[in-house]
Amino acid sequence: MIIPYMANGYRLAVVALMLTGAPAALSQNQKDLYAKHEYMIPMRDGTKLYTGVYVPKDKPGKHPILMERTPYGAGPYGPDSYRGRRGSKLFKDNGYIFAYQDVRGCGHSEGVFVNDRPQIINPLKPHDIDESTDTWDTVAYLIKNVPENNGRVGLWGISYPGFYAGVGAINSHPALKAASPQAPVSDWFVGDDFHHNGAFFLMDAVGFARFGESKAVASTTSTLPRPNTRGDPFKFYLETGTLAGLTEKYFKFTDGLWPYLMEHGTYDEYWQSRSLPMHMTGVKCAVMTVGGWFDAEDCWGALHTYRGAERLNRGIQNTLVMGPWYHGMWAGRDGSRLGDMDWGQPTSTYFQDKIEFPFFDSNLRGNGRFKAPEAQVFETGSNQWRTFNKWPPSEVKEASIYLQSGKTLSFDPPGDSGEYYDEYLSDPAKPVPYQGGTIRSRTREYMIDDQRFASVRPDVVSYQTPPLDDEVTIAG
User: Fold this and answer.
1) Which of 146, 214, 279, 439 has the fewest Cβ atoms surrounding its Cβ within 10 A?
2) At what angle are helices 160-168 and 299-312 packed, to 10 degrees?
3) In whole angstroms, what is the distance from residue 191 CA to residue 277 CA?
4) What is the pTM of this model?
5) Mean per-residue pLDDT for 1-27?
6) Residues 6+ apart with CB under 8 A from 458
7) Tens of pLDDT, residues 438-463
Protein backbone atom coordinates (compact mmCIF):
# COMPACT_ATOMS: atom_id res chain seq x y z
CA MET A 1 0.00 0.00 0.00
CA ILE A 2 1.16 3.55 -0.60
CA ILE A 3 0.38 6.22 1.97
CA PRO A 4 1.10 9.73 0.70
CA TYR A 5 1.82 12.37 3.31
CA MET A 6 0.41 15.60 1.92
CA ALA A 7 2.08 18.73 3.16
CA ASN A 8 -0.22 21.73 3.50
CA GLY A 9 -3.00 19.73 1.89
CA TYR A 10 -5.92 22.10 1.50
CA ARG A 11 -9.36 20.55 1.65
CA LEU A 12 -11.33 22.49 -0.91
CA ALA A 13 -15.02 22.01 -1.29
CA VAL A 14 -18.18 23.43 -2.67
CA VAL A 15 -20.49 22.95 0.20
CA ALA A 16 -23.18 20.31 0.19
CA LEU A 17 -22.95 20.01 3.95
CA MET A 18 -25.50 20.16 6.75
CA LEU A 19 -28.04 17.84 5.20
CA THR A 20 -31.35 18.89 6.66
CA GLY A 21 -32.96 15.51 6.58
CA ALA A 22 -35.63 17.06 4.36
CA PRO A 23 -38.14 14.50 3.08
CA ALA A 24 -38.63 13.35 -0.46
CA ALA A 25 -40.91 15.14 -2.90
CA LEU A 26 -44.47 15.51 -1.66
CA SER A 27 -46.80 12.80 -2.92
CA GLN A 28 -50.28 13.79 -4.02
CA ASN A 29 -52.01 11.66 -1.44
CA GLN A 30 -50.41 13.25 1.66
CA LYS A 31 -53.53 15.34 2.26
CA ASP A 32 -55.60 12.19 2.05
CA LEU A 33 -53.38 10.43 4.59
CA TYR A 34 -52.78 13.18 7.16
CA ALA A 35 -54.57 16.04 8.90
CA LYS A 36 -52.21 18.98 9.39
CA HIS A 37 -52.16 21.05 12.57
CA GLU A 38 -50.05 24.15 13.17
CA TYR A 39 -49.13 25.32 16.65
CA MET A 40 -47.21 28.23 18.13
CA ILE A 41 -45.95 26.46 21.22
CA PRO A 42 -45.04 28.71 24.18
CA MET A 43 -41.68 28.14 25.83
CA ARG A 44 -41.05 28.90 29.50
CA ASP A 45 -39.72 32.38 28.69
CA GLY A 46 -42.80 33.26 26.60
CA THR A 47 -41.19 32.73 23.18
CA LYS A 48 -43.40 30.77 20.79
CA LEU A 49 -42.05 28.16 18.38
CA TYR A 50 -43.80 27.13 15.18
CA THR A 51 -44.55 23.42 15.00
CA GLY A 52 -46.31 21.63 12.15
CA VAL A 53 -47.91 18.30 13.07
CA TYR A 54 -49.29 15.64 10.72
CA VAL A 55 -51.81 13.26 12.27
CA PRO A 56 -52.77 10.18 10.23
CA LYS A 57 -56.35 9.80 9.07
CA ASP A 58 -58.28 6.55 9.15
CA LYS A 59 -55.86 4.99 11.64
CA PRO A 60 -57.89 4.17 14.75
CA GLY A 61 -56.21 4.17 18.13
CA LYS A 62 -53.47 6.20 19.78
CA HIS A 63 -50.19 6.82 17.96
CA PRO A 64 -46.65 7.94 18.85
CA ILE A 65 -45.18 11.27 17.78
CA LEU A 66 -41.90 11.42 15.84
CA MET A 67 -40.43 14.92 15.93
CA GLU A 68 -37.64 16.81 14.16
CA ARG A 69 -36.36 20.19 15.34
CA THR A 70 -34.57 22.13 12.63
CA PRO A 71 -32.94 25.46 11.75
CA TYR A 72 -33.65 24.84 8.06
CA GLY A 73 -37.38 25.42 7.99
CA ALA A 74 -40.26 23.25 9.20
CA GLY A 75 -42.50 24.32 6.32
CA PRO A 76 -44.20 24.49 3.99
CA TYR A 77 -46.41 26.74 6.06
CA GLY A 78 -50.17 27.06 6.02
CA PRO A 79 -52.94 24.54 6.66
CA ASP A 80 -53.15 23.43 3.04
CA SER A 81 -49.40 23.10 2.41
CA TYR A 82 -48.03 19.66 3.16
CA ARG A 83 -44.54 18.23 3.29
CA GLY A 84 -43.39 14.75 2.49
CA ARG A 85 -41.68 12.41 4.92
CA ARG A 86 -38.55 10.34 5.17
CA GLY A 87 -37.77 7.00 6.72
CA SER A 88 -39.27 3.58 6.32
CA LYS A 89 -42.75 3.17 4.87
CA LEU A 90 -43.46 1.23 8.06
CA PHE A 91 -43.85 4.52 9.95
CA LYS A 92 -46.75 5.47 7.69
CA ASP A 93 -48.26 1.99 7.75
CA ASN A 94 -48.26 2.01 11.54
CA GLY A 95 -49.88 5.39 11.93
CA TYR A 96 -47.03 7.54 13.25
CA ILE A 97 -47.67 11.22 13.90
CA PHE A 98 -44.95 13.49 12.45
CA ALA A 99 -43.98 16.84 14.00
CA TYR A 100 -41.56 19.45 12.62
CA GLN A 101 -40.44 22.45 14.62
CA ASP A 102 -38.56 25.62 13.71
CA VAL A 103 -35.97 26.30 16.42
CA ARG A 104 -35.73 29.80 17.89
CA GLY A 105 -35.32 32.57 15.36
CA CYS A 106 -35.82 30.31 12.35
CA GLY A 107 -38.71 29.93 9.94
CA HIS A 108 -41.94 31.02 11.62
CA SER A 109 -40.64 30.73 15.19
CA GLU A 110 -40.09 33.70 17.46
CA GLY A 111 -36.90 34.45 19.34
CA VAL A 112 -33.23 34.78 18.45
CA PHE A 113 -31.28 32.04 16.72
CA VAL A 114 -27.91 31.10 18.21
CA ASN A 115 -25.61 28.81 16.26
CA ASP A 116 -24.98 25.58 18.17
CA ARG A 117 -26.52 27.09 21.31
CA PRO A 118 -24.55 26.05 24.43
CA GLN A 119 -26.11 24.12 27.29
CA ILE A 120 -26.77 25.78 30.64
CA ILE A 121 -24.54 24.07 33.18
CA ASN A 122 -25.68 25.72 36.39
CA PRO A 123 -29.09 25.02 37.97
CA LEU A 124 -31.84 26.44 35.80
CA LYS A 125 -33.68 29.57 36.83
CA PRO A 126 -37.42 29.70 36.01
CA HIS A 127 -37.00 31.44 32.65
CA ASP A 128 -33.62 30.04 31.59
CA ILE A 129 -33.67 28.38 28.20
CA ASP A 130 -31.46 26.20 26.07
CA GLU A 131 -32.25 23.61 23.43
CA SER A 132 -33.02 20.88 25.97
CA THR A 133 -35.53 23.09 27.81
CA ASP A 134 -37.17 24.00 24.49
CA THR A 135 -37.44 20.28 23.70
CA TRP A 136 -38.92 19.57 27.15
CA ASP A 137 -41.53 22.34 26.77
CA THR A 138 -42.41 21.17 23.25
CA VAL A 139 -42.85 17.54 24.28
CA ALA A 140 -45.03 18.57 27.24
CA TYR A 141 -47.26 20.62 24.93
CA LEU A 142 -47.54 18.02 22.18
CA ILE A 143 -48.69 15.15 24.40
CA LYS A 144 -51.39 17.41 25.87
CA ASN A 145 -52.65 18.98 22.62
CA VAL A 146 -52.05 16.74 19.61
CA PRO A 147 -55.10 14.56 18.92
CA GLU A 148 -54.82 10.77 19.02
CA ASN A 149 -51.28 10.65 20.45
CA ASN A 150 -50.26 7.86 22.85
CA GLY A 151 -48.17 10.03 25.16
CA ARG A 152 -44.83 8.88 23.73
CA VAL A 153 -42.48 11.00 21.65
CA GLY A 154 -39.40 10.17 19.58
CA LEU A 155 -36.82 12.67 18.38
CA TRP A 156 -34.65 12.35 15.27
CA GLY A 157 -32.62 14.47 12.87
CA ILE A 158 -29.63 14.47 10.55
CA SER A 159 -26.64 16.86 10.77
CA TYR A 160 -27.78 20.14 12.39
CA PRO A 161 -31.17 18.59 13.23
CA GLY A 162 -29.06 15.69 14.56
CA PHE A 163 -27.55 18.13 17.06
CA TYR A 164 -31.06 19.07 18.21
CA ALA A 165 -31.94 15.39 18.54
CA GLY A 166 -28.89 14.85 20.73
CA VAL A 167 -29.25 17.93 22.88
CA GLY A 168 -32.98 17.26 23.23
CA ALA A 169 -32.20 13.99 24.98
CA ILE A 170 -30.33 15.85 27.72
CA ASN A 171 -32.47 15.98 30.88
CA SER A 172 -35.12 14.06 28.99
CA HIS A 173 -38.83 14.76 29.44
CA PRO A 174 -40.50 11.58 30.76
CA ALA A 175 -42.59 11.29 27.57
CA LEU A 176 -39.50 11.41 25.37
CA LYS A 177 -38.81 7.71 25.00
CA ALA A 178 -36.32 7.57 22.13
CA ALA A 179 -33.85 9.89 20.41
CA SER A 180 -31.71 9.29 17.34
CA PRO A 181 -28.98 11.88 16.68
CA GLN A 182 -27.82 11.10 13.15
CA ALA A 183 -24.51 12.58 11.93
CA PRO A 184 -25.02 15.09 14.73
CA VAL A 185 -23.12 18.35 14.80
CA SER A 186 -21.25 17.69 18.04
CA ASP A 187 -18.10 19.78 18.20
CA TRP A 188 -17.36 22.31 15.48
CA PHE A 189 -13.76 22.74 16.57
CA VAL A 190 -12.46 19.28 17.34
CA GLY A 191 -14.01 17.11 14.66
CA ASP A 192 -17.10 18.25 12.79
CA ASP A 193 -17.68 20.24 9.61
CA PHE A 194 -15.40 23.27 9.90
CA HIS A 195 -12.49 21.75 11.82
CA HIS A 196 -11.09 18.24 11.83
CA ASN A 197 -8.74 17.79 14.77
CA GLY A 198 -8.57 21.56 14.88
CA ALA A 199 -7.55 21.94 11.20
CA PHE A 200 -9.70 24.59 9.51
CA PHE A 201 -11.80 23.36 6.57
CA LEU A 202 -11.83 26.50 4.49
CA MET A 203 -14.37 25.82 1.79
CA ASP A 204 -16.93 24.22 4.07
CA ALA A 205 -16.69 27.22 6.38
CA VAL A 206 -17.03 29.70 3.53
CA GLY A 207 -20.16 27.94 2.29
CA PHE A 208 -21.74 28.23 5.74
CA ALA A 209 -20.23 31.58 6.72
CA ARG A 210 -23.44 33.60 6.82
CA PHE A 211 -25.62 30.95 8.41
CA GLY A 212 -27.43 32.35 11.43
CA GLU A 213 -27.18 35.93 10.21
CA SER A 214 -29.71 38.19 11.92
CA LYS A 215 -32.51 39.58 9.78
CA ALA A 216 -31.29 43.15 10.28
CA VAL A 217 -27.78 42.33 9.10
CA ALA A 218 -28.99 40.10 6.27
CA SER A 219 -31.00 42.97 4.84
CA THR A 220 -27.87 45.12 4.61
CA THR A 221 -25.47 42.45 3.36
CA SER A 222 -27.70 41.02 0.64
CA THR A 223 -26.05 43.19 -2.03
CA LEU A 224 -22.46 42.51 -0.98
CA PRO A 225 -20.32 40.22 -3.14
CA ARG A 226 -20.36 36.47 -2.49
CA PRO A 227 -17.41 34.14 -3.05
CA ASN A 228 -17.60 32.73 -6.56
CA THR A 229 -15.80 29.39 -6.51
CA ARG A 230 -17.39 28.00 -9.65
CA GLY A 231 -14.97 26.61 -12.21
CA ASP A 232 -11.75 26.29 -10.24
CA PRO A 233 -12.14 26.80 -6.48
CA PHE A 234 -8.54 25.72 -5.90
CA LYS A 235 -7.36 28.68 -7.95
CA PHE A 236 -9.93 31.01 -6.34
CA TYR A 237 -8.66 30.41 -2.81
CA LEU A 238 -5.02 30.62 -3.78
CA GLU A 239 -5.62 33.99 -5.44
CA THR A 240 -7.78 35.25 -2.56
CA GLY A 241 -4.97 34.59 -0.12
CA THR A 242 -5.45 35.04 3.60
CA LEU A 243 -8.44 34.59 5.87
CA ALA A 244 -8.20 38.29 6.64
CA GLY A 245 -8.57 38.96 2.92
CA LEU A 246 -11.64 36.75 2.71
CA THR A 247 -13.15 38.50 5.71
CA GLU A 248 -12.50 41.98 4.36
CA LYS A 249 -13.94 41.26 0.93
CA TYR A 250 -16.89 38.99 1.74
CA PHE A 251 -17.71 38.68 5.44
CA LYS A 252 -16.75 41.97 7.08
CA PHE A 253 -20.31 42.81 8.14
CA THR A 254 -21.90 39.43 8.80
CA ASP A 255 -22.96 38.36 12.29
CA GLY A 256 -23.43 34.77 11.16
CA LEU A 257 -21.01 31.94 11.84
CA TRP A 258 -17.88 33.40 10.19
CA PRO A 259 -16.80 35.96 12.83
CA TYR A 260 -17.02 33.30 15.54
CA LEU A 261 -14.81 31.00 13.50
CA MET A 262 -12.30 33.80 13.14
CA GLU A 263 -12.41 34.95 16.77
CA HIS A 264 -12.07 31.51 18.33
CA GLY A 265 -9.06 29.89 16.72
CA THR A 266 -8.28 27.69 19.72
CA TYR A 267 -10.37 25.23 21.69
CA ASP A 268 -11.59 27.86 24.12
CA GLU A 269 -14.71 28.19 26.26
CA TYR A 270 -16.80 29.14 23.23
CA TRP A 271 -16.26 25.74 21.63
CA GLN A 272 -16.14 23.71 24.84
CA SER A 273 -19.53 25.03 25.99
CA ARG A 274 -20.96 23.79 22.69
CA SER A 275 -19.46 20.30 22.81
CA LEU A 276 -22.39 17.88 22.75
CA PRO A 277 -20.49 14.74 23.89
CA MET A 278 -19.29 16.31 27.14
CA HIS A 279 -22.80 17.56 28.01
CA MET A 280 -24.85 14.41 27.35
CA THR A 281 -26.12 14.18 30.93
CA GLY A 282 -29.50 13.35 32.40
CA VAL A 283 -30.48 11.18 29.46
CA LYS A 284 -33.45 8.98 30.39
CA CYS A 285 -34.62 7.90 26.94
CA ALA A 286 -33.20 5.25 24.60
CA VAL A 287 -30.54 6.66 22.25
CA MET A 288 -29.47 5.40 18.82
CA THR A 289 -26.66 7.45 17.29
CA VAL A 290 -26.12 6.99 13.54
CA GLY A 291 -23.18 7.87 11.32
CA GLY A 292 -21.36 7.05 8.09
CA TRP A 293 -17.79 5.89 7.68
CA PHE A 294 -17.44 8.12 4.61
CA ASP A 295 -19.18 11.17 6.08
CA ALA A 296 -16.89 14.13 5.39
CA GLU A 297 -18.94 16.40 7.65
CA ASP A 298 -19.93 14.67 10.90
CA CYS A 299 -18.37 11.24 11.26
CA TRP A 300 -16.61 12.44 14.42
CA GLY A 301 -19.90 13.62 15.89
CA ALA A 302 -21.63 10.28 15.60
CA LEU A 303 -18.83 8.29 17.24
CA HIS A 304 -18.30 10.75 20.08
CA THR A 305 -21.94 11.54 20.81
CA TYR A 306 -22.44 7.81 21.31
CA ARG A 307 -19.36 7.72 23.54
CA GLY A 308 -20.53 10.71 25.60
CA ALA A 309 -23.99 9.24 26.14
CA GLU A 310 -22.42 5.93 27.16
CA ARG A 311 -19.95 7.47 29.59
CA LEU A 312 -22.35 9.88 31.30
CA ASN A 313 -25.55 7.80 31.48
CA ARG A 314 -24.86 4.32 32.75
CA GLY A 315 -27.65 1.85 32.26
CA ILE A 316 -29.61 3.54 29.47
CA GLN A 317 -30.33 1.82 26.18
CA ASN A 318 -27.57 3.33 24.06
CA THR A 319 -26.63 1.98 20.64
CA LEU A 320 -24.38 3.00 17.76
CA VAL A 321 -25.00 2.42 14.05
CA MET A 322 -22.23 3.07 11.51
CA GLY A 323 -22.77 2.32 7.84
CA PRO A 324 -20.80 2.71 4.57
CA TRP A 325 -22.35 6.08 3.92
CA TYR A 326 -21.62 9.68 3.02
CA HIS A 327 -23.43 12.44 4.91
CA GLY A 328 -27.10 11.52 5.26
CA MET A 329 -26.88 8.70 2.71
CA TRP A 330 -28.84 6.38 5.02
CA ALA A 331 -31.94 8.58 4.63
CA GLY A 332 -32.16 7.89 0.89
CA ARG A 333 -33.28 4.75 -0.86
CA ASP A 334 -31.05 1.85 -1.77
CA GLY A 335 -27.52 2.77 -0.56
CA SER A 336 -25.88 -0.12 -2.39
CA ARG A 337 -22.79 1.73 -3.60
CA LEU A 338 -20.53 4.73 -3.12
CA GLY A 339 -18.60 5.75 -6.20
CA ASP A 340 -16.84 2.67 -7.54
CA MET A 341 -17.41 0.72 -4.33
CA ASP A 342 -20.32 -1.72 -4.47
CA TRP A 343 -21.62 -2.92 -1.11
CA GLY A 344 -23.66 -5.67 -2.74
CA GLN A 345 -26.84 -4.81 -0.82
CA PRO A 346 -29.22 -1.88 -0.22
CA THR A 347 -27.66 -0.68 3.03
CA SER A 348 -29.89 2.41 3.41
CA THR A 349 -33.11 0.48 2.91
CA TYR A 350 -31.91 -2.17 5.33
CA PHE A 351 -31.13 0.47 7.95
CA GLN A 352 -34.51 2.15 7.64
CA ASP A 353 -36.59 -1.03 7.77
CA LYS A 354 -34.51 -3.31 9.99
CA ILE A 355 -32.76 -0.94 12.39
CA GLU A 356 -34.31 2.54 12.53
CA PHE A 357 -38.00 1.63 12.52
CA PRO A 358 -37.64 -1.23 15.05
CA PHE A 359 -35.65 1.05 17.37
CA PHE A 360 -38.37 3.68 17.47
CA ASP A 361 -41.26 1.24 17.38
CA SER A 362 -40.04 -0.81 20.32
CA ASN A 363 -39.72 2.32 22.43
CA LEU A 364 -42.68 4.35 21.22
CA ARG A 365 -45.24 1.55 20.99
CA GLY A 366 -43.54 -0.75 23.45
CA ASN A 367 -43.96 -3.99 21.56
CA GLY A 368 -40.57 -5.27 22.77
CA ARG A 369 -39.70 -6.92 19.47
CA PHE A 370 -36.39 -5.18 18.97
CA LYS A 371 -33.40 -5.68 21.22
CA ALA A 372 -30.68 -3.32 20.09
CA PRO A 373 -27.07 -4.50 20.28
CA GLU A 374 -24.50 -2.05 21.57
CA ALA A 375 -23.23 -1.43 18.05
CA GLN A 376 -24.33 -2.36 14.54
CA VAL A 377 -21.54 -1.65 12.12
CA PHE A 378 -21.12 -2.28 8.40
CA GLU A 379 -17.75 -3.85 7.65
CA THR A 380 -16.49 -2.85 4.22
CA GLY A 381 -14.40 -5.32 2.28
CA SER A 382 -16.36 -8.28 3.57
CA ASN A 383 -19.50 -6.17 2.98
CA GLN A 384 -21.50 -7.40 5.92
CA TRP A 385 -23.33 -5.97 8.91
CA ARG A 386 -21.78 -6.95 12.22
CA THR A 387 -23.13 -6.57 15.74
CA PHE A 388 -21.10 -6.01 18.90
CA ASN A 389 -21.93 -6.00 22.59
CA LYS A 390 -19.24 -3.37 23.16
CA TRP A 391 -17.75 -0.52 21.15
CA PRO A 392 -14.91 -0.36 20.37
CA PRO A 393 -15.01 -4.17 20.08
CA SER A 394 -13.43 -5.96 23.03
CA GLU A 395 -11.24 -8.07 20.73
CA VAL A 396 -9.62 -5.03 19.11
CA LYS A 397 -5.89 -4.64 19.60
CA GLU A 398 -4.06 -1.41 18.98
CA ALA A 399 -1.31 -1.65 16.38
CA SER A 400 1.25 0.98 15.50
CA ILE A 401 2.72 1.36 12.03
CA TYR A 402 6.30 2.59 12.08
CA LEU A 403 8.18 4.63 9.51
CA GLN A 404 11.34 2.79 8.48
CA SER A 405 14.45 3.64 6.53
CA GLY A 406 14.16 3.22 2.77
CA LYS A 407 10.63 4.72 2.69
CA THR A 408 9.12 1.58 4.14
CA LEU A 409 6.41 0.90 6.73
CA SER A 410 6.19 -1.92 9.23
CA PHE A 411 4.13 -3.08 12.20
CA ASP A 412 7.51 -3.77 13.88
CA PRO A 413 9.52 -0.96 15.48
CA PRO A 414 12.92 -0.10 13.98
CA GLY A 415 15.49 -2.65 15.02
CA ASP A 416 18.35 -0.28 15.89
CA SER A 417 18.86 3.09 17.52
CA GLY A 418 20.09 4.81 14.40
CA GLU A 419 18.63 8.20 13.58
CA TYR A 420 16.88 8.59 10.26
CA TYR A 421 14.99 11.44 8.75
CA ASP A 422 13.28 12.30 5.50
CA GLU A 423 12.81 15.84 4.30
CA TYR A 424 10.89 17.74 1.68
CA LEU A 425 10.39 21.35 0.70
CA SER A 426 6.84 22.65 0.87
CA ASP A 427 5.75 25.81 -0.94
CA PRO A 428 2.49 27.24 0.50
CA ALA A 429 1.82 28.83 -2.89
CA LYS A 430 1.67 25.33 -4.41
CA PRO A 431 -0.27 23.24 -1.91
CA VAL A 432 -0.89 19.56 -2.50
CA PRO A 433 -4.46 18.83 -3.65
CA TYR A 434 -6.36 15.85 -2.34
CA GLN A 435 -7.62 14.84 -5.81
CA GLY A 436 -5.97 14.64 -9.19
CA GLY A 437 -6.93 16.84 -12.12
CA THR A 438 -8.85 20.10 -11.81
CA ILE A 439 -10.93 20.25 -8.67
CA ARG A 440 -14.33 21.58 -9.63
CA SER A 441 -16.05 20.81 -6.34
CA ARG A 442 -15.72 18.77 -3.20
CA THR A 443 -17.34 15.51 -4.20
CA ARG A 444 -18.74 12.95 -1.80
CA GLU A 445 -16.45 10.37 -3.33
CA TYR A 446 -13.21 12.21 -2.60
CA MET A 447 -12.78 10.14 0.56
CA ILE A 448 -12.30 6.98 -1.50
CA ASP A 449 -10.32 8.50 -4.37
CA ASP A 450 -6.93 7.09 -5.32
CA GLN A 451 -4.33 9.57 -4.07
CA ARG A 452 -1.29 7.87 -5.54
CA PHE A 453 -1.03 10.67 -8.09
CA ALA A 454 0.49 12.81 -5.32
CA SER A 455 3.35 10.37 -4.67
CA VAL A 456 5.33 11.69 -7.64
CA ARG A 457 5.41 15.24 -6.29
CA PRO A 458 8.69 16.44 -4.76
CA ASP A 459 6.82 17.87 -1.77
CA VAL A 460 5.18 14.57 -0.83
CA VAL A 461 6.90 11.75 1.03
CA SER A 462 5.43 8.25 0.55
CA TYR A 463 6.03 5.08 2.51
CA GLN A 464 5.11 1.54 1.54
CA THR A 465 4.72 -1.81 3.29
CA PRO A 466 5.82 -5.16 1.94
CA PRO A 467 2.95 -7.28 0.61
CA LEU A 468 0.58 -8.08 3.49
CA ASP A 469 0.68 -11.75 4.46
CA ASP A 470 -2.60 -11.69 6.42
CA GLU A 471 -5.90 -9.84 6.20
CA VAL A 472 -6.04 -6.64 8.25
CA THR A 473 -9.36 -5.49 9.69
CA ILE A 474 -9.56 -1.88 10.85
CA ALA A 475 -12.30 -0.97 13.36
CA GLY A 476 -13.27 2.65 13.76
Assistant:
1) 214
2) 0
3) 12
4) 0.91
5) 34
6) 424, 425
7) 888 888 888 898 899 999 999 999 99
